[in-house]
Amino acid sequence: MRNVTVDNVTDVVIDSLGKHADIAPRQREIMESLIKHLHGFCKDVNLTHDEFLYACDYLGRAGALCSDKRQEFILLGDILGVEVLVDMLSNPISGDETVSTVLGPFFRENAPVMPKGASTVQKHFDGQETVYVEGYILDNKGNPIPGAIIDVWEDAPNGLYENHDPEQPDYNLRGRFESDAKGHYAFTAIRPVPYPIPGDETAGELIRYMGHHCMRPGHIHMMVTRDGYRPLISQIYDADSAHLDDDSVFAVKEDLIGKFEKAPEGAETDLVLRFDFTLADQAQAMAAE
Ligand code: BEZ
Ligand code: FE
Question: Where is the Intradiol ring-cleavage dioxygenases domain (predicted)?
Fold first, then answer.
């Protein structure tokens, strides 16, 4: 096709799909929609060539930042509300299960496996408040789920995750715990503080361009897995934290807000947090998708 026009270029590009090699129906679906939306966006804003070149340079700079320590594209997706949207589309609620939210870029595989109640805290920070977190892992009929793995991670009182802070020990404030025969889990951690997502480099450039801010409310990440149940990636938010209503990545859900209460006299931690998780049955969840 020669001499494409503003009016026909979208159809011409869509027509080229699968012309010279077979493509799967899902590939076609994704590419057709991507081309339509991308062309629609360029037309909507009447994108200039300078802006197009700037975007190419920007994406190149974002890619160059990616390493095993930093996944810039997850961060950009979070700032644009894409990760929270994809999470809601991938994990529709089909019953009473606990709501999921974004994974974010700070998860690390292979956190230390710890006995029930153990502490993830390897380094003391002045002013930190310790918390005993406990609850039950349940199915959607309220029955306990023993043997579930609860993978937890959070930021330190300086607002940094351990893998972004050379002053913290490896895997500080991370751990994996298992629910017992009654479905009960427990671990000791610290009260998470609000923190800024990385606001330097291309993520910061995007936030500033949007006139938004970097802050997230205090939260503990928890990923709960057990064969036969839909994996749950979630976060528990501190009910008394700032930024619950203006999270930079739009990931706060009312049902994930927990109250950090003063611990009873004689307890080993300053605070206690009680939070139960209900897992969706894998087969039922797949049927609802
Ligand atoms: C986090 O909660 O760790 C997070 C989520 C999205 C972007 C940045 C951080
Ligand atoms: Fe986080």
Answer: 133-161
